[in-house]
Amino acid sequence: MMDTTLIVVLVLQWIFLIGLGVVVLALVRQVGVLHTRFGPAPGALMISRGIKIGERSPEFKLRSLDAQDVVIGGADPAGRSTLVMFVAPECPVCAKLLPALRSIGSSESSWLRLVFASDGEIDVQKKFWMAKGLSEHPYVLSQELGTTYQIGRLPYGVLLDEQGVMVAQGLCNTREHIESLFEAKRLGVSSIQDYMEREHRRADSEKAI
Amino acid sequence: MQIDPAIAYVLRGAFFALFAASLLHKGSQFETFRLTVRAYVRGSVLDYPWVTLALAVGVLLGEAAVVLVCVAPVAPLVRASVVAAQLLLYAAAMGINVWRGNTQLDCGCHWGSLRQTVGYPLVWRNLFLAILASVLVLPASARGLQALDFLSVGAGILLCGLLYAAGSRVFTQSLATRETA
Lengths: 209, 181
What we know:
The structure holds two protein chains of two kinds.
Chain A lengths: L1 H37 L21 E4 L5 E4 L8 E6 L5 H16 L4 E7 L3 H10 L7 E3 L1 H7 L6 E5 L5 E6 L3 H13 L4 H17 L1
Parallel strand pairs in A: 3-4, 4-5
Antiparallel strand pairs in A: 1-2, 3-6, 6-7
Chain B lengths: L4 H24 L1 H12 L7 H23 L4 H24 L20 H15 L12 H34 L1
Helix pairs in contact in B: 1-3, 1-6, 2-3, 3-4, 4-5
């Protein structure tokens, strides 16, 4: 009788413990989902510590998901600038930004080449690429590219001029953030921090006068 | 001092499952793993393609050795040393890179598409696991296992897996929160 009771108690105890483990895992996963959905969305900040503004980007010879050769860095034969957008399938902000990126890629195609970059499992990336209708622009997978540019947060944009020199970069959560990269190129400022610093200096010099 | 054989089996089973899954993942995506190893040594004296390749193969062989000693009848000291050494090696590699400020590095320990950047929480996790592995140095007592023990061993291994998965997600999220804060 005692043995039977012990067996029942032990079995029940394991069922409860494993149930608790499953619940903990589900809760942690849910916290992650909430964190991703409601996490802070900082502005177009330059957070990368990789290649600096004004430096020439190394040349990367890559292959896109549709097996086309893609060169990032170096002089562009068509004389266009290159916007490398770092995205990932598991990044919800990236998914929200894709329609704006597609639109920019078409409207600015006369002077701008849009290249999507990511890394990770090719099957997951291909599904993402097809589901989001990104076939009009090259989509490359390269861990080396992300490591060289030191990409830490997504979606992140890197703008290279027609000679392959980095002219602007920053975290891009909205269309305005992407356009701020073009504006940074036009004004010759490297980032929003650089722009704010220049504005402060200009205000200080005006006060001095 | 001895430990109960059921506890020894739970630990051996849990480490076997952990390293077997890791080995399968790394082996099936070897090129990605090689690039991860390269990112670990970038800018150091080891930053050569052939060294990176040798290190990646070495890590895989190390993991294969861990899997083997978890199931093979080897001396407790050998088993504990191999498992703990592998975990301490990972902790050291991550610790050095975090200390160098290379905190955007993918730890290379994820399964699936979950990206996990390195950080001190992962170093502490590996040290904790190494301490757990060092328990295997104690010989198991001669108590014969009953049918009920097999249930406990199986359930214990499953629970360890669930807690490891939950803990990994907590670490990933805490590091991501720190990145975006």
